[in-house]
Amino acid sequence: MNQIVWMALAATLGTWSVTALGAAMVLFFKSPETKLLNMMLGFASGVMIAASFWSLLQPAIERAEQSGGAPPYLVATTGFLCGALFMWVCDKIVSYASGRADNVRGEPSDRLNRIIMLVLSITLHNIPEGLAVGVAFGALADHASMESLMGAVTIAVGIGLQNFPEGAAVSLPLRREGYSRKKSFLLGQASGIVEPAAGVTGALLVVYVETILPYALSFAAGAMILVAVHELIPECQKNRKKQPYTATMGIVTGFAVMMLLDVMLG
Question: Which residues 6+ apart lie within 8 Å of 225 measured at CB?
Fold first, then answer.
């Protein structure tokens, strides 16, 4: 049992390291060039929208069907709406807290609000991904075989590859908001550090997590969609008159890349 937990920990440390590699993309940008960063912000939006379905909602529906419990449509819809509601409440709390701080500092709260919402949404998305890896390895305790081991490794590799654009999806918008390259990288990689903890939890509580996981996946999807639509897309479209399709092509490209990774890796 301990060996399986260690395997889950090693796998999720690997997926977190790929998130850090994606976040390191920000180190190649010396200054926030508006056109490029608008495209990258659009790319981040496309990644989040695609991940919401291919990485989260679709697996949630499939797992709900396998569990034979509540109807899959009810599980996915409930989790999705709860995730969106949670992020809306977080937005209100952040706005209230930063507004009170503005009274002391005299600084605008929009920038801080966007940053916290972005980091929180990607972090929430990484929790069920870590759980999925942990569950896959935890299942080896009941049915250990080369096929099941390779299946768990495949899930970890797939999630790891998906984490690369997700790391960039955090660090590049932070750079867009004026943060230094170092701070943007540190916050970007930190969004994936929850995966090892979630992976170990999933391996230890695999029986219970199998029931909870569909709700967690759809919950993360709702949170990501709300942030992408409410925060990121409007932000990247601010220069639409001068650059009508720059951000839009970034959104399309981000969606296509994330969809390709998810479908190709299963």
Answer: 48, 49, 52, 80, 84
